[in-house]
Amino acid sequence: MPQSQASRKRARRILLVEDSEGNRDLMRELLTVRGYDVVTAANADEAEAAIRVQQPDLILLDVIMPGRSGYDLCRKLKSDPTTRLVPVVMITGLTSREDRIRGIQAGADEFLSKPIVPEELFARAESLLRLKDYTDELENVESVLFTLARSVEARDPYTEGHCERLSRYSVDLGRRLGLDEDSLTALHRGSILHDLGKIVIPDEILRKGKNLSPEEWQIMKQHPVTGESICQPLKSLRNVLPIIRHHHEHWNGTGYPDALRGEEIPFLARVLQVVDVYDALRTARPYKPALSHSESERTMRGEAASGLWDPDLVASFLGMVSEQRQAA
User: Quick check: pTM over 0.70?
Assistant: First the structure.
C-alpha cells in the first residue's frame, strides 16, 4: 500500500458510478486493494443518494448510463456549492474531441478512456486527491477566519447575530439584483468577515461606539485595512477583499479608508454597506434604541439623499424588505 494512503487516518472515499456490473466490480477491487474506501452506484440517482449519505473525496463517473448521463450528473454536481469542489473523473469509451469538450463544459476535472489501465487509474486518482487535500486545507483556514470573525462579534453583546442577518439580507438582495453565484458567495463570506479587523481593536474602544476621541477614531478606521490584510493571502477570498476594505466608504466620498466616491466603491461593498446600515439601525446599542422598520426606512432614505449611500441600492433593498415583511 502506498505510504500516502497508509499514513492517513481514514481511507479516502471514492464514489464509482458505472452501470456495467463487471466493470464496477473490477474497478472496485483494484481501488480497494490500493487502500481506498469505494462506494458504488449504477446510475445517477444512486450516485446522488450515496453523496447525500457521505460526500466522497473523488468521483469516477461513467459517461453512458441508463437515465441521466454522466454529463448531466457532472453538470449538476459542479453547479451545487456543496459538491462543486469534489473532483470528477469521467470514464468513457468515446474518444472524439467533441465528447471531451462536452465533458469539460460539464465541469469534469479529468478523463479516463476505456478499457481502464490500472496504472493510469491510480495515477489520476492520487493526483486529484492531492489537489482535494489542498482544497480542504484552504477550507479549514477559511473556517478558522470565520471563527475569529464571530469571536469579534461575541465581544459586543449588542451585535449578536449581526453577521448572520447581514448574510441573509445581502444574499437575498444579491439574488434580487440578479447577481451570479460567485458574487452571492462573496457576499455571504463578506458578511461574516467584514469586521474581522476589529480583532485588534481594544474592547474599551470597540464597545464605546460613539464619542470616540480623535486618536480612538483613527484606530477604529483602520479595521477594514487590517481585515483585508488578514484575508489577503487566501486566493479563495479575492472576491471578498473589496467588501472588507470598502464597506465603510460613502457615496459622496466622505467614508474610509480610501475616500472612494460613487461607483468607485466596489459594487458588492455597496450592497453590504446598505444592509449593514439597516441592521445597525434596527439593533439597540448602548448609545441608541432600536428603530422600527419605518423609522429605519426614513433614516436610510434621508441619508441616501444626503450622499451617504447608493440611492438605487437603498431603494432596491428597502423594497425587498417591505415585500418580505408583507409576505410574512
Answer: no
